[in-house]
Amino acid sequence: MFKRTLIFVLVLLLALIAAPTFAQQGEVSLPEDCVAVSLEYWNPFTGPDGPFMGQIVDAFNAEHENIQVAMTTQSEYYTQLGTAAASGTLPDVAIVHADQIATQVYRNVLRPMDDIVEQMSITGENFPEAVWNAGEVNGSRYSVPLDIHPMTMFVNMDLLAEAGFDTVPTTAEEFAEVAGALTSGDNNGFMITAGFPIRQIFEMLLYQFGGTSFNEDGTEAAWNSEAGVQAAQWLLDAQAAYSQPNLEVDAELNAFKGGTVGIIWNGIWQTTNVTGEGVFFNGVAAAVPQVGPQMAVWAGSHQLTLPSQPDEDPCRDAAVGIFINYLLDNSVTWASAGQLPANNAVRESAEFAEVQPQADIAAGSADYVFFPPSVPGITDAYVPLDEAVAALLNGNATDVQAELDTAVERANQILQQNRDTFGEAPTASS
Questions:
Q1: What pTM value is reported for the model?
Q2: DSSP string computed for 327-362
Q3: Distances (CA, A) of 78 to 73, 137, 381
Q4: Among the listed residues 59, 68, 150, 135, the one whose alpha carbon sits nearest the alpha carbon of residue 101
Q5: b (16+ CB within 10 A) / e for 219-245
Q6: Which terminus of the chain is less hemmed in, N or C, by CB atoms within 10 Å?
Q7: Cα(48)–Cα(4) distance, rounded to whole angstroms?
Q8: pLDDT tens digits, 108-147
């Protein structure tokens, strides 16, 4: 325990002196008449990542006499944000997931932050294009990306070594060779279930085969394309060749931890669960392979936002800018919680290169991530796709094209209902 604590402290100290930083590009300072500012900061980090964020906030408070941040970690997070918006008690800065930005904007939970971003000298050049674009709604900026959490490949290197392989697969051909060789007796080379994150895996393959989930403006679903059929068929073929049928959610994680599965795909947040001390074998995490003609990686992102406030307060807004800058500057520490820094400069730094396996995963993932269009209620439109992919993998549906067509029809109805429900975009006023 002492050794692990010492390693964490050393990583934190390295992160706090990491360079280059955003502050060097555009320092935000408090106006002269701002004596002391208190900020409320909300986030949903109820898991083991929470203490990492707490360490960064504590360090910020120790370094800034005139700004103090009170961090609150909330469960049932978006319900809490909605309740606070109704009562006028929203925090000063909050984490919002990328696929929730537009929804929270249309619910008047978030306010634009174009002015603060300009003062911080932050532009799209500081981030991968897709994760930066996730924060723009109707031409205004409502968030700045803190991190990226991509789909990740987890590999039992002991099983690979027994089969004569010493490196993880990176191409479709290599993947098929490794998964096929490892599928023998009680062992499965690759395992997938009909539950989470199978839709996300399907979506990743859809993009790799050249498709998209929605049209450009997010008004219609588009996964019933030829690329969608290819993606679904690849999953079905992989299930038949390497996996087992009709598996429930987490079955692949449990089997992998049991040492009988060579490869699984899941979110980077599973790294500590299925590598290192989490398993009894040599489990490693790596970027997912390129199965289709073009690389693409499903990912989520925690984004920094400014919740709506009843009044203008230059002191508060300047303090928020300073705090956001600090979080971005010190996102190497946050990476130790299992995330990839969204900030290009931090992700390319020597300090981050020492944070493994996150640095290796970033090299093969960060520039290829994609996100849903900035449309309110977009997550609702995924439900028919979730059900369609699950039905195919469970064997409850056999006609791939028909199943995807039906899911698109249902999703388009949901998208139209959402347009009716959310109405016109709120007026963007800082």
A1: 0.91
A2: HHHTHHHHHTTT-EES-HHHHTSHHHHTSTTHHHHH
A3: 12, 19, 18
A4: 135
A5: eebbbbbebbbbbbebbbebbeebbee
A6: N
A7: 14
A8: 999 999 999 999 999 999 999 999 999 999 999 999 999 9
